[in-house]
Amino acid sequence: MSPVLAGVLQLLALIAALALAYRPLGDHMARVYSSDKHLRVEKWIYKGIGANPNTEMRWPAYLRGVLAFSLAGMLFLYLLQRLQGSLPGSLGFKAIDPDQAFNTAASFVANTNWQSYSGEQAMGHVVQTGGLAVQNFVSAAVGIAVAVALVRGFARSRTGELGNFWADLVRGVVRILIPISVVAALVLVACGALQNFSGIHEVGQFMGGEQQWNGGAVASQEAIKELGTNGGGYFNANSAHPFENPNPISNLFEIFLILVIPFALTRTFGRMVGSVRQGYAILVTMATIWIGFTALMMWTEFHHGGPAFDLAGGAMEGKETRFGIGGSSLFATSTTLTSTGAVNSFHSSYTGFGGGITMLGMQLGEIAPGGVGSGLYGMLIMAIIAVFIAGLMVGRTPEYLGKKIGTREIKLAACYILVTPALVLGFTGASMALSTPKDSLLNNGAHGFSEVLYAFTSGANNNGSAFAGLSADTPWFNTTIGLAMLLGRFLPMVFVLALAGSLAAQKPVPATVGTLRTEKPLFSGLLVGTLMIITGLTYFPALALGPLAEGLAS
Amino acid sequence: MNNSVGNTARLLGAGLRALIVLTVLCGVLYPLAVTGAAQALFPDKANGSEIEDGGRVVGSALIGQRYDLPLRKGQETPAPDLKWFQPRPSNGLGTNVINTRYKLILSGATNLAGDSGAKKTDGGKKEVCDPEAKEGLCAQVLAARNAVIKDNSTAGHTVRPADIPADAVTSSGSGLDPHISPKYAKLQVHRVAERNGLDVASVTKLVEDNTDERILGFIGEPRVNVLKLNIDLRHLAADKG
Predict the structure, then answer these.
(1) pLDDT tier, B74 (very low <50, low <70, confident <90, very high otherwise)
(2) Which among A185, A235, A316 is the nearest to B34, CB-wise?
């Protein structure tokens, strides 16, 4: 069997597995966020928080909950790193410097998991397992909560109430993320991922002498790292490290974990707005882009254009033998089209076009299928834009799911889509214009520019992967990428929740013959087109300077 | 104003309490439960898939290692011990610089671009690797390719550039890739047989026995675990000797 065919078959197997999980998981999540009942353990948690889970919140209250919880998480994580040297279970690792501690705290709270540190030589058990892995759960649950609040905005009428943030947060963790993670972690251990608290110990070598390894709770962190579309690796090499991703089965399984919740949330959305076909239209849009990008990625990586790859006879630099080109390409597009940013191969050593595809995936806003929660709300914002554009064409007030898209709604949607490009292009421009940030570049020319563009694209879109040649552990990059991650996460959430509030307050407009049928394939096509045009117009000049210039020369 | 400060403080308090409760759940109970189950069900794997040979641990089935001669005076990097099958290059592997109490290996890739060390041709439109490249991925691939040809060509067997698979001249993502492609393993057979005083057929059989095919015929890539192969080679050489 040729490697190309094997790659395609792995893609098909993945699609089949996702299809099997789609309905049960999507329906389960819809029940979780619609149920009136509280589990006993949840009641204890609410008691601990001191919150009444039955109080309905309007959008400002919901937003205040999101921000207060995230701020608390950030302060806690910052202090944990700054005090690492004095905490037990730190394996002798010292306190993290202030700029890096800020960057890392912002990164994990914003569901980005950009890492300017190297896991195996900077973080002990306490920070990894008690700090970073916790944010992997809760930042994911926050993302889903905000998406659910927007869905309720569409589903409810004549009320400003969007649900209870604490209940949505806790249910997401207790009923969705933890149960799946426990099973997933054990599957990963069965494949060979580490799960112990042995700390740093010496292991004998074939030629004599010894090698030092750090053990730890790797599989349990790996499971939620993928499932919550977080991406922060236990080790520096992330999912390329054999202890995180031991074999081809664990590789496919990790890609499955990355994609399963974002895709299934479209089912949850359909259920909650009372029409699963509306969910299918969003699903088809996401799946079209994901499959298209994956096919393009496999084509360019198997074709291996690039001077050094031509010489080597294949684009295997930065890729593991057990995954090959197929398994690596599949992972690369899945991780950048979601907000995951885990890597099983190093994007900086992809072909010029391959690196461009990973960047474009993030620049689309990570909506195909996107991060947990953030993918769905990002795509729904784009749906509003698409409906608006269609409305302009025929001169009708646009509506979506029975809600009028008026001035206020379109202003909020427009603000949403402007935040990230402004952060990416502004910070990239500043870094290139100043003299010192450029000292961090590993490669020259177009690829060097790509390293910086990638860093801010990844940060502002909350992805977390990197063209890792960039030495990002400098005060400039730690601070600016930290700010890009925070603003890129929480400003859009402000607009999403304000939009949800304004939709929930409306009374529904009955569908007429003139209403755009948003559950039809035509609408999916319009949505794909809208996405490509808006992103293309925004980022094309920057992409032309980096990956396109590199790809066209080879 | 006092009221709003009070409200903010109350809200932050709730956020902090929520964080503490969820930290106990996700950061303490969850990893402990998974560790307990993992240690009960798959103790070998959860502890690093160690391999023993001759009564001592010789490494992990999952982690690549070097098979080098001892470092000699004046050398910066040790030379490969050509008696053994050689792994992929690992130019991205780093050493621990932060917590120097340990000699930890820092996993990682080179992150070099495919056009690093290349020069323009065809009026500046095309780029190819400069045969004299001193830096970048071009230089690394060139050096690795020359070494593979030199090391593996024996009296009766010459390695041609076209025989060399890509994994033999590129660094992996982790720098700890435990595998090589079957093609790279077979390319080393003549050299290994000669250096160990074995016949080519029995070493070829060793490679074939140690080749893992794609799982279910399509998942992953065919590969050879270098540590397991070298352990079998040591036994074979010892039996002969």
Answers:
(1) confident
(2) A185
